[in-house]
Automatic annotation (TrEMBL):
InterPro entries in UniProt: Syntrophin (IPR015482), Syntrophin_4th (IPR055108)
Protein name: Syntrophin C-terminal PH domain-containing protein
Superkingdom assignment: Eukaryota
Species assigned in the record: Paralvinella palmiformis
Subcellular location: Cytoplasm
Domain Syntrophin C-terminal PH: 117-220
UniProt keyword annotations, A-Z: Cytoplasm
Keyword field contains Glycoprotein: no
A cellular-component GO term for this protein: cytoplasm
Keyword Transmembrane set for record: no
An MF annotation (GO) of this entry: structural molecule activity
């Protein structure tokens, strides 16, 4: 367990008059977990009401925020998580600047640590009407390989044929339709369109985490 605390969870039923619900949040080496109350037993720890992969979660703001009526400043941080259903956003309220700083740091460092630990993520895709697998490797970038039906199961030692490979340095832009299509623009090498068979947001968020972690390790950001 990296960190945990009781925070305020934004309830967006009425944006003009937002209410806050007490929530217990925890970060592990893989997950960002939300509970209605502080868990004590193993069973309670295993049943959060929401569970987001820390690798696909990022901090989007941290600091002072005006309340809806504009009469008070509160301390909040916000997160966005890429899920199979799309992007889920949360806002949390804290009581002290120290708590805010601790949680902001824990979220960023937790995602970066997970990137180094996980190292690579692979997902099935369709590219130019072919069944393939796309691999994002922390060090090596993007690799698309053929995925012939049943060949790997019948012969685990058989290496898949690589269709293309690009280091992260080649990536100029990424985009998605929020439904199932992902576009990767490699500049002079051209743009690749991939059907990821589900919402592409998790793989997009993981890509951003990998890149952010690599930049942080180079000492280019705090």
């Amino acid at each position: 367990m990296v960190s945990s605390l009781v925070a305020g969870h934004w309830m967006p039923a009425d944006p003009l008059s937002p209410s806050w619900k007490p929530v217990f949040a925890a970060i592990t080496d893989k997950d960002f977990l939300l509970y209605d109350t502080a868990p004590f037993t193993k069973e309670e720890w295993a049943t959060p009401f929401q569970n987001h992969a820390i690798l696909a979660t990022r901090l989007v703001h941290s600091g002072k925020q005006q309340t809806a009526m504009g009469c008070q400043e509160i301390l909040t941080f916000g997160t966005r998580s890429g899920t199979k259903q799309g992007v889920e956003a949360h806002v949390f309220r804290l009581e002290t600047q120290r708590d805010l700083s601790s949680w902001s740091r824990a979220l960023v460092q937790g995602a970066h640590t997970a990137a180094v630990m996980v190292k690579e993520v692979t997902c099935p895709v369709t590219w130019q009407n072919q069944d393939c697998k796309l691999t994002l490797h922390y060090d090596n970038g993007f690799t698309l390989a053929e995925c012939p039906s049943g060949s790997e199961d019948n012969n685990p030692g058989l290496k898949a044929h690589i269709l293309w490979h690009y280091p992260y340095e080649k990536l100029r832009m990424s985009a998605d339709d929020g439904v199932r299509l992902l576009w990767l623009d490699f500049g002079e090498e051209g743009e690749q369109e991939l059907d990821v068979h589900q919402c592409p947001k998790p793989i997009v968020f993981i890509l951003h985490t990998f890149l952010s972690s690599k930049v942080a390790r180079l000492g280019l950001i705090a």
